[in-house]
Amino acid sequence: MDHQDIKDVMEINGDRNVSKFLEAGWVLLNTAKKRDGDSEWIAYSMGWPKDLPSVIPKGTSYS
Fold first, then answer.
1. Other CB atoms closer than 10 Å to residue 21's CB: what's the count?
2. Cys-Cys with 30: which of 2, 39, 45, 57 at CB 3.0–4.6 Å?
3. Handedness of CA 10, 11, 17, 19 (dihedral sign)
4. Distance CA 44, CA 21 (A)
5. Are 9 and 46 in contact (CB under 8 A)?
6. Are residues 21 and 60 in contact, defined by beta-carbon separation less than 8 angstroms?
7. H helices within the chain, ranges in order?
8. What does the pLDDT look like over 48-59, one tens digit per residue?
9. Which residue, among 22, 32, 12, has the nearest Cα to 55 in the 3D structure?
């Protein structure tokens, strides 16, 4: 997929959130390991590839 087709980008955390975003039509653009003090996590950059308004899936910490 060409990144020129991406309309919106969000950085999200959590495997469950990622799954719900993928099911809603978002695509995975990148991952990055993040750190804040003693905490570490994976941040997922998700892109919305459609001309329609982006959909934030219900049941995520972003809805």
1. 25
2. 45
3. positive
4. 11
5. yes
6. yes
7. 15-24
8. 998 889 999 999
9. 22
> Residues 6-58: pLDDT tens digits?
999 999 999 999 999 999 999 999 999 999 999 999 999 999 998 889 999 99
Which 3 state secondary structure label does DSSP give 54? coil
Name the residue with tokens 């990055």.
Answer: 32
What CA–CA distance (Å, rounded) separates 43 from 33? Answer: 6
From CA 43, how far away is CA 53, in angstroms rounded?
23
| Tokens of residue 60, six digits | 């995520």
Please name the amino acid found at residue 12.
Answer: I
